[in-house]
Design goal:
This protein is of the alpha+beta class. The chain is 24% helix and 35% strand. The protein has a 15-stranded mixed sheet that branches. A two-stranded antiparallel ribbon has the order 4-5.
């Protein structure tokens, strides 16, 4: 058999997953060849390169672009597939092989975490459109724009991601838990205004979660009600005291932290945040910049191969 989308582009971050992606590649290629799936293997060479490779592949006529790696690789590939808030080519599809590393994005869709099983999902015509989030944030004193497929944060969550990037990668998925404990000690709440179009939240905040998918941080079910096909962002504004914020943390893994009196929840197509000091912004596990920031949902933005 062969793919109805023709020759696919595999964009591979060989360093992802502590080198696990590179170790998985022989198995991935063997299964692709067994299924007579034609492909070009494109290796990233640094930050942002996957975005460039995805854009070049689509501009060259590729209809199936496959992110081989973790959530960071997916994030960059999605940004390469988008142009001016629309798909660069509406006929192009995103595929995912979460090789060598954990991917929270795939958990919402039930895409297998095992490379050999994920390859099976690359043949056949099955695909559907999903929503993509858009962030306008502050970077080096200027507005910048990035798209995200899964979850974005402003506040302590983004600080945790930044701290996690400095910790040993052998910690695996638990790296975010270790980073949380190291970050919470010196954390202090910010005074924020979150504009939800029809109402505002004004007051203290530890963290703002803006979710398209359900999972992040190595398996935490942060947004159990999120659906990347409903045209809405799931928003959580956490403003608990430090002791309660610590108590909430273990419940996030099972999605049992909401409802909670110290977590304001909403579903919106747009939200923006201003704060009494610049707060770090992250999306899909990638540190981007600082607040103020605005989040929007782009409905049915790209097609996901499943």
């Amino acid at each position: 058999m062969s793919s109805p989308y023709g020759r696919m582009a595999l964009i591979c971050n060989s360093k992802a997953g502590r080198g696990g992606v590179a170790r998985s590649l022989p198995e991935i290629e063997r299964y692709l060849k067994e299924r007579n799936l034609e492909y070009d293997l494109l290796h990233t060479e640094g930050a942002g390169h996957a975005t460039l490779l995805a854009r070049q592949a689509i501009e060259g006529g590729t209809k199936l672009v496959v992110a081989v790696g973790g959530d960071g690789t997916i994030h960059e590939v999605v940004n390469g597939m988008m142009d001016n808030d629309k798909a660069l080519n509406p006929e192009a599809h995103l595929g995912v092989v979460a090789a060598g590393t954990g991917s929270d994005f795939i958990k919402t869709f039930g895409i297998p975490p095992t490379p050999s099983h994920a390859v099976v999902h690359l043949d056949g015509p099955e695909a559907f459109t999903i929503d993509i989030g858009k962030i306008t944030f502050t970077q080096d004193g200027r507005d910048a724009v990035r798209y995200f497929a899964n979850v974005a944060e402003v506040g302590i969550g983004a600080d945790v991601v930044a701290r996690a990037q400095t910790l040993p990668r052998w910690l695996g998925p638990t790296v975010y838990l270790f980073a949380f404990w190291l970050t919470i000690r010196k954390h202090r709440a910010a005074q924020v205004t979150v504009d939800l179009v029809d109402r505002k939240y004004e007051g203290p905040m530890n963290n703002l979660v803006v979710a398209n998918g359900q999972f992040f941080g190595g398996g935490m079910k942060i947004a159990p009600k999120a659906a990347p096909t409903d045209g809405l962002l799931d928003i959580q504004i956490e403003h608990a005291r430090k002791r309660e914020a610590i108590a909430i943390m273990p419940r996030v893994y099972k999605g049992q932290h909401v409802p909670h009196p110290d977590i304001f929840e909403a579903k919106r197509v747009k939200a923006s945040i201003a704060s009494d000091r610049p707060l770090r912004v992250e999306a899909d596990g990638e540190v981007l910049g600082y607040s103020p920031a605005t989040f929007e949902i782009l409905r049915d933005a790209i097609s996901l191969k499943v």
